[in-house]
Every structure is written in C-alpha cells, then in structure tokens.
C-alpha cells in the first residue's frame, strides 16, 4: 500500500514511517503542501496522512483541492487541533478520519486499514488461491496451516497481482507500487521478487507474459 505522509515534524514523521514500513507499506514523506501537490499529480496513493499546520499553508486547503478535483483517495488528518468544531470541519471538508496528536502508532495503522477497506468496499481481504490462504489485511499467507514468510517488497508485489487477478500487470506498474518515489530500483528487481515468490508460493502461480508483464493465475 502506498502512503503519502504530509508532516513537517521530523521527530513525529520518522517513527511513523518506520512503523508503517514494518507493516509492509511504501511511505513517501513530504513536509510542505507544494511538495505534496507535485506528488499527487505524479502518482496515485492508497491513503494520505495529512497534518494541518504546515510551513506553506493549511492542510485543509490541500484537502479541499483534492476533493474539488474529484480525487477520492482516503485522507486521514493528523493534527493537534482538538476542538470538536475542528473535527467536524475537517470531516465535512472530505476527510475520512481525524486523529488527534499525540497518537498511538498502532492506532494510526489500524485507522489506515479501516479507511482503505471502506474506500474499496471490501468486506473481506482473505483470498483462497489454489492451496494458499492469503490475508492481505494481516499480511499472512499459509499453505495447509503452515505460515509462509514474505518480505515487504514480496508482499507488495503479491498484493498488486491479487487485486488485479487474471489481468496482466506491467513491470512498470509493479515498480511504481512497491518503490517510493526517487528510490533506486535495479533493472532486474521485479524479476528477482518474482523468482522468490514462485519459490515460496509455487512456480505455476505467476505467469510471465514476455514484453507485457505478469499475471496471477486464478
């Protein structure tokens, strides 16, 4: 899952990024609205974590701009503004959730999962594919009750393939989904992830369409 974090306090952003990356999210962090605006014009995100008091303006204006352009990406406000009127205003302007600072890192993680499930209308995130039981919400995959451990990048690839099951996913789309903007990507990185996934999950699970991309077999 790709997360856009807009927060100007490094002391707060650092632990939050570390916590979310440990939960297999790709986090891109910007400290100004101008940088964030450039990011949303270039990429699609699964969720936005938005501070309100930023060096170059009020985060609510950024939120209003997103909704005015019909960008429906879930937005969770993270702020010290704790008045009831502030919460109501943020939600009325289009925020999907409103979290008061200081917050618990696990709570933010749980709220991310909640708003993303809500936005995609997914009642269940558990999939049975061949002899594999895959739960995207909890990042668990097992075969015959035996857990199979995947790395964060392997999870990212698998999630994209599952959500586009029976469709060909281009290599570039996979790179975009699992690597942060500006992160160095080796030319054969996706091929390496595919090789390890086939070793762990089964060699016939993922088909390579040469020159086109990859497909998860239903």
TrEMBL record:
<dbReference type="GO" id="GO:0000156">
    <property type="term" value="F:phosphorelay response regulator activity"/>
</dbReference>
<dbReference type="InterPro" id="IPR036388">
    <property type="entry name" value="WH-like_DNA-bd_sf"/>
</dbReference>
<dbReference type="InterPro" id="IPR039420">
    <property type="entry name" value="WalR-like"/>
</dbReference>
<feature type="modified residue" description="4-aspartylphosphate">
    <location>
        <position position="51"/>
    </location>
</feature>
<keyword id="KW-0597">Phosphoprotein</keyword>
<dbReference type="GO" id="GO:0006355">
    <property type="term" value="P:regulation of DNA-templated transcription"/>
</dbReference>
<keyword id="KW-0902">Two-component regulatory system</keyword>
<keyword id="KW-0805">Transcription regulation</keyword>
<dbReference type="InterPro" id="IPR001789">
    <property type="entry name" value="Sig_transdc_resp-reg_receiver"/>
</dbReference>
<dbReference type="Pfam" id="PF00486">
    <property type="entry name" value="Trans_reg_C"/>
</dbReference>
<dbReference type="GO" id="GO:0000976">
    <property type="term" value="F:transcription cis-regulatory region binding"/>
</dbReference>
<feature type="domain" description="Response regulatory">
    <location>
        <begin position="2"/>
        <end position="116"/>
    </location>
</feature>
<dbReference type="Pfam" id="PF00072">
    <property type="entry name" value="Response_reg"/>
</dbReference>
<feature type="domain" description="OmpR/PhoB-type">
    <location>
        <begin position="124"/>
        <end position="218"/>
    </location>
</feature>
<dbReference type="InterPro" id="IPR011006">
    <property type="entry name" value="CheY-like_superfamily"/>
</dbReference>
<keyword id="KW-0804">Transcription</keyword>
<keyword id="KW-0238">DNA-binding</keyword>
<feature type="DNA-binding region" description="OmpR/PhoB-type">
    <location>
        <begin position="124"/>
        <end position="218"/>
    </location>
</feature>
<dbReference type="GO" id="GO:0005829">
    <property type="term" value="C:cytosol"/>
</dbReference>
<protein>
    <submittedName>
        <fullName>Two-component system, OmpR family, response regulator</fullName>
    </submittedName>
</protein>
<dbReference type="InterPro" id="IPR001867">
    <property type="entry name" value="OmpR/PhoB-type_DNA-bd"/>
</dbReference>
<dbReference type="GO" id="GO:0032993">
    <property type="term" value="C:protein-DNA complex"/>
</dbReference>
